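Is this the right way to post structure tokens for a design question? Let me know if I should format differently. Anyway, here goes:
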């Protein structure tokens, strides 16, 4: 489907750098700057050292592997969306130069948990909500499966954990994704991949998103999914 020119994002302009005028404990992300020491079993302690930790009010998120059965096997939906932090790498002293500039990144549908999302029911509910909001597929929370345990992406810096899930949408007709109204949703596109092709794209660096590779790998390793008739990639 052709996109209107107003829907096509060509860059991100920095209007102002608020860093020097902002507290580290305000905004969407909070940075805690701590002075720590290690305690030892014999009662001694290490020297003091500094630790920076990046938190959100609700630290965790869900990733949703949305899949369907196609003529050649399992297909997985990805979403290409704006990622300013990746885009702004261009101004950093990179030890290994990036192969390409970044603006939009390909990844699975995902979303931050809300205060009411508690326990496994909350994870399934949030996954269903994100599936509708970002991909346009209306599913029930009971249709969502958990893809094993949660995982950290950068535990030396981020407190965030990702809770991996999967949901089948075979035979469902998508609605227009409503998004969340943020400018960060502008220019987002959806793509269906044969699952083996997506895993290869992750491993070659065409798709550079860790949660996507982890979720796809877990899905392929799950006998419950892959034993289903017609589910071979």
């Amino acid at each position: 489907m052709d996109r209107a020119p107003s829907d096509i994002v060509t860059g991100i302009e920095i209007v102002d750098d608020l860093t020097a005028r902002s507290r580290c404990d305000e905004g969407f992300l909070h940075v805690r700057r701590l002075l720590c020491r290690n305690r030892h079993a014999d009662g001694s302690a290490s020297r003091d050292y500094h630790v920076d930790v990046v938190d959100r009010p609700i630290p965790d998120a869900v990733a949703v592997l949305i899949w369907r059965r196609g003529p050649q096997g399992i297909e997985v939906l990805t979403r290409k969306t704006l990622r300013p932090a990746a885009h702004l790498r261009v101004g950093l002293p990179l030890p290994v130069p990036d192969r390409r500039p970044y603006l939009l990144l390909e990844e699975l549908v995902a979303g931050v948990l809300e205060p009411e999302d508690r326990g496994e029911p909350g994870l399934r509910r949030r996954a269903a909500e994100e599936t509708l909001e970002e991909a346009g597929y209306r599913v029930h929370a009971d249709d969502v499966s958990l893809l094993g345990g949660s995982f950290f992406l950068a535990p030396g810096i981020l407190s965030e954990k990702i809770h991996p899930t999967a949901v089948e949408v075979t035979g469902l007709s998508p609605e227009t994704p409503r998004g969340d109204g943020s400018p960060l949703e502008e220019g987002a596109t959806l793509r269906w991949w044969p699952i083996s092709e997506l895993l290869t794209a992750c491993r070659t660096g065409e798709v550079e998103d860790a949660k996507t590779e982890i979720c796809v790998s877990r899905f392929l390793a799950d006998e419950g999914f892959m034993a289903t008739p017609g589910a071979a990639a």
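Format looks fine. Someone answered above. Worth noting: The chain has one domain: 58-226. The two ends are 27 Å apart (CA to CA).
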